Amino acid sequence: MRASLADDFAIQTARLRELTELNADTGDPGEAHTRDALLVATRQNIEQITGALSRISDGTYGACQKCPERIAAEWLAVLPHARFCVPCQGKQNR
Predict the structure, then answer these.
(1) How far apart are CA 7 and CA 11, in angstroms?
(2) CA angle 37, 82, 36 (to 5 degrees)
(3) pLDDT over 70, % of the chain
(4) How far apart are CA 86 and CA 83, in angstroms?
(5) How far apart are CA 77 and CA 79, in angstroms?
(6) Of 55, 63, 47, which Cα lies nearest the Cα of 8?
(7) Residue ranges covered by each domain of the chain
(8) CA pair distance 15, 78, nearest whole angstrom
(9) Is 19 helix (H, G, I), strand (E, B) or coil?
(10) Residues 49-78: what's their mean pLDDT?
(11) Which residue from 66, 62, 61 is spatially nearest to 94, judged by alpha carbons?
């Protein structure tokens, strides 16, 4: 899992670098808005991946941060940076 997350981190970091280098103002507000939204999403992805790597390092990866349950392996396979088990994630989204 650590290797997969590290690969994702490298991909997102490269994407962030690419997006920040694309500073050319075309005068199209829609394009600028899209680029800004991609920058925000990419930074958020990097934060989530960094958090997951940190939890791996400190031995808390896979533990729900809301309850004493473990996060199901199937959920971590879909969302490797998950911080909550499925029931707690559902409550978080309400």
Answers:
(1) 6
(2) 5
(3) 91
(4) 10
(5) 6
(6) 47
(7) 1-61, 62-94
(8) 21
(9) helix
(10) 95
(11) 66
DSSP one-letter code for 8 = H
C-alpha–C-alpha distance, residues 35 and 29, integer Å? 10
Tokens found for residue 14: 């490269």
Mean pLDDT of the chain: 89
DSSP-derived secondary structure for 30-65 = HHHHHHHHHHHHHHHHHHHHHHHHHHHHHT-TTB-S
Tokens, residue 32: 């600028």
Distance from C-alpha of 94 to C-alpha of 90, rounded to nearest angstrom: 7
- Measure the CA–CA gap between 31 and 43, rounded to whole angstroms: 18
Rounded CA-CA distance 57/8 in Å is 17
Please count the other Cβ atoms lying within 10 Å of the Cβ belonging to residue 2: 12
